[in-house]
Specification:
3-stranded antiparallel sheet, alpha+beta
C-alpha cells in the first residue's frame, strides 16, 4: 500500500502546485535584486507566508490597493512564488493608507500577511 500512498502524496503536491517562497519578516525587497519595478518610488511591500489564503490577498489588493482583478492575481502569484512583491502607488500617503487597511484586514481574519508602506526616498 505504500506505493498508493506515495502516488497520492505526489498527486496532492501536483494539485497544489510548487511550494511558495517565504522570506524572513525583516526582509526588505528594496534591497534585493529583481524586486524593484522600474520607476518605483513609493508603494506596498508584501511578503509571503504559509497561512494567508491566496484569494484573501487578491481581494484585499483589489479593495485596498485599487488593483484590477487580473493585476491583483498576478501580484498574489508573485508574492507566493517569489516570496514578495513591491506594488507601486502614487504617493507614500496612499501606500501608508493601503498598508494600514490591508494589515488591519489581515489581523481581523487572523492572517499573518506582512504588508507595509515603503519608499526609496526614506
Amino acid at each position: 500500500m505504500s506505493g498508493a500512498g506515495g502516488l497520492l502524496t505526489k498527486f496532492k503536491r501536483w494539485l497544489h502546485g510548487p511550494p511558495g517562497v517565504v522570506l524572513p519578516p525583516g526582509t526588505s525587497l528594496l534591497e534585493l535584486d529583481g524586486f524593484l519595478p522600474q520607476g518605483f518610488r513609493h508603494g506596498l511591500e508584501l511578503l509571503n507566508d504559509n497561512q494567508t489564503p491566496m484569494d484573501f490577498v487578491v481581494r484585499i489588493l483589489e479593495k485596498n490597493a485599487g488593483l484590477p482583478r487580473a493585476e491583483a492575481v498576478r501580484a498574489m502569484l508573485d508574492v507566493h512564488f517569489k516570496g514578495g512583491k513591491l506594488i507601486p502607488m502614487n504617493t507614500l500617503n496612499d501606500a501608508e493608507r493601503a498598508a494600514m487597511q490591508i494589515s488591519t484586514a489581515a489581523r481581523q481574519f487572523n492572517h499573518p500577511l506582512l504588508c507595509r508602506a515603503v519608499s526609496i526616498d526614506k
